[in-house]
Amino acid sequence: MKSFSTNWSVPVTDRRLFLIGLGLLAALPAVRGQGRGMSPMPAVLPAPTLRLKDVDDKMVDLAQYKGRVVLINFWATWCPPCRKEFPSLGRVRKLFKPSEFEVLAVNVGEDPDSVFSFTGLTDFPVMFDRDSRAMAAWSVRGLPTTFLVDRQGRLAYRATGGREFDDPEIVDLIKALR
């Protein structure tokens, strides 16, 4: 049996159980109601590398979107707040020109068949972090976690827990970064 450990130095023998726990942690804000905004990052840092395969097994690289604002959403189908917020990713994507804004949905730990049955056809890339390495590189501690990356490829905002991304407060943040 493989062992998976966190930065908290507590070994977790079942990676799936660990990920479910993260989803439950993230669901706590959803019990009180969906969050609205996003928090500014404490320092201006370049976004970590993000290169993952999509549902068609094609490599998607965050670097190819430099010059655009990018919303990156880490999620899973078994996570209730992830499922609730997912439709809003498509709605916010439609509010902007493709040359200005993109959404990248990073599924954590699931296979493409399971995810495709949930997402169907989207107008934004759905990528697969099967081994949770991207999740670790981006310091994701719970699902869903979302980042806004500015046009220069720097981390600008972060949100942990469910959101409606077409909320005017978040739309205004995206507009300000364009």
Spell out the key features of this protein:
single chain, 178 residues, alpha+beta, Glutaredoxin, six-stranded mixed beta sheet, two-stranded antiparallel sheet, 31% helix, globular, disordered N terminus
Description:
The N and C termini lie far apart (47 Å). A hairpin with a 5-residue loop joins strand 9 (145-149) and strand 10. This protein has one domain: Glutaredoxin, CATH 3.40.30.10. The radius of gyration is 15 Å and the shape is globular. By secondary structure, it is of the alpha+beta class. The relative contact order is 0.23. It has a 6-stranded mixed β-sheet with strand order 3-10-9-6-7-8. Strands 1-2 form a two-stranded antiparallel sheet. A two-stranded antiparallel sheet has the order 4-5. 31% of the residues lie in helices and 24% in strands.
Strand content: 15-25%
| Through-space gap between termini | 47 Å
| Unreliable stretches | 1-13, 22-33
CATH class: Alpha Beta
Tell me the domain tally.
1
The H-and-E topology, N to C, reads as EEHEEEEHEHEHEEH
- Let me know the CATH homologous superfamily: Glutaredoxin
Order of strands in the sheet with most strands: 3-10-9-6-7-8
Helix amount = 25-40%
Largest sheet properties: 6 strands, mixed
Give the structure's gist in a few sentences.
With 178 residues, the protein is α+β, with helices and mostly antiparallel strands. Helix content is 31%, strand content 24%. The protein has five helices and ten strands.
